[in-house]
Design goal:
With 208 residues, this protein is α+β, with helices and mostly antiparallel strands. The protein has one domain (11-193): Alpha-Beta Complex (Peptide Deformylase). 27% of the residues lie in helices and 24% in strands. It has a 5-stranded antiparallel beta sheet with strand order 1-2-3-6-7. The protein has a 3-stranded antiparallel beta sheet with strand order 4-5-8. Strand 4 (104-108) and strand 5 (116-122) form a beta hairpin. Bound molecules: zinc ion. The site of zinc ion has 5 residues, from helix 4.
Amino acid sequence: MRIKIVSVGEPVLRDAARPLPPEEIGGQRIRDLIEHMRETLADAPGVGLAAPQIGESLQLAIVEDKAEYQARLTTEELVERERWPIPFHVLINPEIELLSPPELTFFEGCLSLPGFMAMVPRARKVRVRAFNEAGELKEIVAEGWYARILQHEIDHLKGTMYIDRMWSRSFSSLENYTRHWRSRSDTELAKEFRPSAPILNEQPWKKE
Ligand code: ZN
């Protein structure tokens, strides 16, 4: 069953989501919710979906970056973004640590802001500790695009969206991104869009 994805302005996207108690993980309601989220994400399509995006204020997100989504990018773009296929998995009550400074900047989008993109600085490397759908605690050390996806989805569970972290001058419709910015070099994009003042919500990070 596909569920409607709520868009920016819906209050649930700005709430801190409720952690799932251990006794709820693995229960029928959460199993069904994960299945519905998986179908919704594949239908969108997208590479990550957080429960608040379907109106559920729960610390639950899913990630899947399929090889077929990457076929739309050139080899050069994939290498630059350090993007490779990531199998489907579930994150429950995740905790994230940035293992490098949030300064690697690419255009990203969000299913709750359809039709738009912006340049968002993110850490290249993160460590995430989260429970899976079976209630097992897992540790993930992720790099490149996968690290970006994790930062984006875990932000959703705290009521944060990419527009809070973006280089605001780069905010662009998908159409204009493709027309004007997609083929520009990092140097050109930074020259055009890098803010002169620091972005307000700086994030702590520590070297591994
Ligand atoms: Zn999003």
